[in-house]
């Protein structure tokens, strides 16, 4: 009941086209958790890549973690104490490092080659 109410809170406000990315967190959690569909089925229905799907689902989970305590309080439920000790996502995004520009890569490579020649030529 609380999860259903929380997922409904993810519903975008106003009149937004159904193909707008702001719908994705709501649709992903609604289709997965309430309708019981697999990740693959939902991803194909939305026609989005796996990485986009994962980011949208993570945004939804972050919102659920913010909304759920308030919804439980409104339902006169107690937020379990051990949930306060639950690990949180790091503030720094995890994933790929930003790409270096081609020029920076060439300069780095040239420096490495020069070092190799200096060491080999000695």
Short description:
The chain is mostly helical. It is built from five helices and no strands. Helices cover 59% and strands 0% of the residues.
Could you please describe the fold and organization of this structure?
With about 120 residues, the protein is mostly helical. Helices cover about 60% and strands about 0% of the residues. The protein has 5 helices and no strands. It has helices at about 1-10, 25-35, 40-45, 50-75, 100-120. The protein is elongated. The chain starts with a helix and ends with a helix.
Descriptors for this entry?
5 helices; Arc Repressor Mutant, subunit A; about 120 residues; mainly alpha; single chain
Number of strands: 0
Radius of gyration: 23 Å
CATH secondary-structure class: Mainly Alpha
How many domains, in number, for the residues? 1
Share of residues in helices: 55-70%
Q: Biggest β-sheet: count, sense, barrel? A: none
- Please work out how many helical segments DSSP would assign: 5
The CATH architecture is Orthogonal Bundle
Distance between the termini: 74 Å
Name the average pLDDT: 79
Give the uncertain stretches in residue-range form: none
Set out the fold topology.
Elements lengths: L1 H8 L14 H11 L4 H8 L3 H25 L27 H20 L1
Helix pairs in contact: 1-2, 1-4, 2-3, 2-4
């Amino acid at each position: 009941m609380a999860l259903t109410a929380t997922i409904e809170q993810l519903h975008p406000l106003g009149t937004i086209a159904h193909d707008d990315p702001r719908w994705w967190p709501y649709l992903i959690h609604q289709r997965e958790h309430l309708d019981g569909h697999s990740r693959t089925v939902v991803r194909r229905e939305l026609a989005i890549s796996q990485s986009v799907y994962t980011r949208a689902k993570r945004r939804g989970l972050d919102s659920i973690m913010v909304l759920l305590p308030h919804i439980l309080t409104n339902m006169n439920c107690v937020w379990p104490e051990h949930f306060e000790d639950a690990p949180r996502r790091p503030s720094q995004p995890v994933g790929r490092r930003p790409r270096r520009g081609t020029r920076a890569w060439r300069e780095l490579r040239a420096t490495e080659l020069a070092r190799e020649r200096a060491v080999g030529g000695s």
